[in-house]
Specification:
By secondary structure, the protein is an alpha+beta fold. The chain is about 20% helix and about 30% strand. The protein contains 2 helices and 6 strands. A 6-stranded mixed beta sheet has the order 1-2-3-6-4-5, covered by helices on one side. α1 runs parallel beside α2. It is globular. It starts with a strand and ends with a strand. The relative contact order is 0.24. Pfam families: Ribonuc_L-PSP. InterPro entries: RidA (IPR006056), RutC-like_sf (IPR035959), YjgF/YER057c/UK114 (IPR006175). This is RidA family protein. Belongs to the RutC family.
Length: about 120
């Protein structure tokens, strides 16, 4: 089972020993994306929008788009941000949104407020 490492220069480079995404048998696994440069701003909508843009760039590097996403995982620093994150996240899925879970966690990398990962299929 060959795997293909996917990388987009338009999204942040990994900050550890992982790939932005890995494609296996027509399924793309996108690592959790963050917007460290916006975390200190306190603007959860802007941070979420940038995270989704990063995901879009990675999907594009694999020849896919948001319509190919079948599963998403959202990790929040504060569940009180759920509605704001949901508003921005939802704007990227105009029809047939993917399966998803949203959880609050104690801490995220680079002290960001939101991290999102997705799985997409060809």
């Amino acid at each position: 089972m060959p795997k293909e490492i996917i990388f987009s220069e338009k999204a942040p480079a990994p900050i550890g020993p992982y790939s932005q995404a890995v494609k296996v048998d027509g399924t793309l696994y996108v690592s959790g994306q963050i917007a460290a440069e916006l975390a200190a701003s306190g603007d959860i909508k802007a941070e979420t929008g940038m995270v989704m843009q990063h995901i879009g760039h990675i999907l594009g590097a694999a020849g896919l788009g948001f319509a190919n996403v079948v599963k998403a995982s959202i990790f929040l620093k504060d569940m009180n941000d759920f509605a704001a994150v949901n508003e921005i996240y939802g704007s990227f899925f105009t029809s047939e949104p993917p399966a998803r879970e949203t959880v609050q966690v104690a801490k995220l990398p680079k002290d960001v407020n939101v991290e999102i990962s997705v799985i997409a299929v060809e």
